[in-house]
Amino acid sequence: MGATLKDATAIAGIGQTPFARQLPESEKTLACRAIVAALDDAGIAPSEVDAFASYTMEETDEVEIAKAIGAGDLTHFSKVGFGGGGSCATVAHLAAAIATGQASVGVAWRSRKRGSGPRPWKNTQVQLPTPGQWTRPFGLLRPADEIGMLARRYMHEYGATRDHLFNVALACRNRANQNPAAMMYERPLTREMYMTARWISEPLCLFDNCLETDGALACVVVSAERARDCRQRPVYVHSAAQGLPAQHHGMVNYWTDDPLTGPAWTAARHLWKGADLGPQDVDVAQIYDAFTPLIPLSLEGYGFCGRGEGAAFTEGGALEIGGRLPLNTGGGGLSEAYVHGFNLINEGVKQLRGTSTAQVPDAATCLVTAGEGVPTSALLLRS
Amino acid sequence: MTPSVAPATDNRSDSAAGLLLPVPDDDGAPFWEYAARGELRIQACADCDALRFPPRPCCPHCRSFSARWQRMSGRGRIWSYVLPHPPLLPAYAEQPGYNAIIVELAEAPGIRLVGNLVTAADAPLNSVDPARLRIGAPVKAVFHTMPGGVTVPRWLLERP
Ligand SMILES: [Zn+2]
């Protein structure tokens, strides 16, 4: 038995820029602002940074960032693929590097001007991570169409309804209404608004889709020992996992025997194996919500309920504050900001520090997940 | 087998209709060649006979690098479907109410093809009333040659 990640490292600092449909500054500037803020939050000098991790889709790189913020000599840098599936893995890679002595102060970040920029699917030349020759000629153009297919099948197999998807959208919107930094702050959602909203890809409507956001976030990972001397209460990386199931095909996962059990199941098995805790011990969850149906699928995958029970799980206010599993307490990708899930990591840290704008009383354990449907990752954080 | 489809460096937006044409990779090229002959074929292992889709260089069951292309009946059932609405690429937005479906093949339930349900091989993508779409509905393949010269499978209801 080799080294374990369990509680060996901690998130010591978090930082973010404002979130808006359009911000004037460049992605590079936004990235630097978020990273400098995260290091300041931790009380660690930028010259101490020796590791970086981000997404392969991140367009600012460690060379530019390190030069701009005045980082020291870097001894670890890594990138994780598959868009929002890589969010938690950035922290996991830093945790692994620090736990094994490859580095001592790691920064993970994501900066994205998705609000200002073009819609990625409009580029007809790029084949994206999906095998486009089998899908795009038939007008299955966008991630919303690809996930809409899974959603329709899920609704058919398990009797899930649009009301279940509304429960997800509403929980996220209600938390955003408590979070002044959220794009949907002071913009309440009603069932009537949801049920009469325009379709994007039927069965998914406007409110089943995440926001288009400009913004950046970062966090700082150090050893647990170092974290205890930092400015903020440490948030320990208790367990971490990536997940790419056998025979999985990317976001278009129609060619496995069972397309409704996606990467979440694989990541979950490894996550719980490395933890002293189980789903029943999770106080609050930040579950990747590019589209509402990812929530019931993830609830099943991470073991909060059985197969086919994810939709019913959302009933009775279960995802609200005071419910069985408070969800996406900053508003999530649906209502706070869509920055490829990085805001879910930082919100998990806020919950375990006790500083969320929608604080779950005495929250001590938080699950954070990356995108379901694509090769994914997850973190189990504890205070 | 030499792919008869155009090289991948071309601009594949079909200038006539604006619909996207398939951009085949090396493994997928034979599928489109057979489609051009009106045949629906799926890659199969030449050693253990396991079908696989999408095509790939090696059999995931027995690791054989030897493959053949097995002709399918063209019959299947709708596994799921969506009705995409704007924002869309213009050529698709011009066919409001069009559908995209997934068909599970009758002989190989794990193999599912994305396509369109239409009333005839050359009918518009929105030719079927969306109310007719139903998971489980039996369908059969037909072949449509797009204005760019590439032939794609499309699907008709067995009981229109
Ligand atoms: Zn074989």
Topology:
The complex is a heterodimer of chains A (383) and B (160).
Chain A: E1 9-16, H1 27-42, E2 51-55, H2 62-69, E3 76-80, H3 87-99, E4 105-113, H4 143-158, H5 162-176, H6 191-195, E5 199-202, E6 204-205, E7 214-223, H7 224-227, E8 235-243, H8 263-273, E9 284-286, H9 294-301, H10 310-313, H11 332-335, H12 342-353, E10 365-369, E11 376-382
Parallel strand pairs in A: 2-3, 2-4, 9-10
Antiparallel strand pairs in A: 1-7, 1-8, 4-7, 5-6, 8-11, 10-11
Helix pairs in contact in A: 1-2, 8-9
Chain B: H1 29-36, E1 41-45, E2 67-71, E3 75-84, H2 90-93, E4 100-105, E5 108-115, E6 138-145, E7 151-157
Antiparallel strand pairs in B: 1-2, 3-4, 3-6, 4-5, 6-7
The structure holds zinc ion.
Zinc ion binds next to loops of chain B.
Folded structure, characterized:
- Chain A has 383 residues and is α/β, with parallel strands linked by helices.
- Chain A is 30% helix and 17% strand.
- Chain A has 12 helices and 11 strands.
- Chain A has helices spanning 27-42, 62-69, 87-99, 143-158, 162-176, 191-195, 224-227, 263-273, 294-301, 310-313, 332-335, 342-353; strands at 9-16, 51-55, 76-80, 105-113, 199-202, 204-205, 214-223, 235-243, 284-286, 365-369, 376-382.
- In chain A, the strands form 2 sheets. Chain A has a 9-stranded mixed sheet with strand order 3-2-4-7-1-8-11-10-9.
- The radius of gyration of chain A is 19 Å and the shape is globular.
- The relative contact order of chain A is 0.19.
- The model of chain A has no long low-confidence stretch (mean pLDDT 95).
- In chain B, the strands form 2 sheets. In chain B, strands 5-4-3-6-7 form a 5-stranded antiparallel sheet. In chain B, strands 1-2 form a two-stranded antiparallel ribbon.
- The N and C termini of chain B lie far apart (37 Å).
- Chain B contains 2 helices and 7 strands.
- The model of chain B is unreliable at 1-16 (pLDDT under 50).
- Chain B is mainly beta and 160 residues long.
- Chain B has helices at residues 29-36, 90-93; strands at residues 41-45, 67-71, 75-84, 100-105, 108-115, 138-145, 151-157.
- In chain B, a hairpin with a 2-residue loop joins β4 (100-105) and β5.
- Classes of the chains: A alpha/beta (383), B mainly beta (160).
- At the A-B interface, α4 and β5 of A face β3 and β5 of B.
- β5 of chain A pairs antiparallel with β3 of chain B, so a sheet runs across the interface.
- The structure holds zinc ion.
- Zinc ion binds at residues 45, 47-48, 50, 59, 61-62, 64 of chain B.
- Zinc ion (ZN) is lined by residues 45, 47-48, 50, 59, 61-62, 64 of chain B.
- Chain A: InterPro entries: Thiolase (IPR002155), Thiolase-like (IPR016039), Thiolase_C_2 (IPR055140).
- Chain A: Residues 257-375 form the Thiolase C-terminal domain.
- Chain A: It comes from Streptomyces platensis.
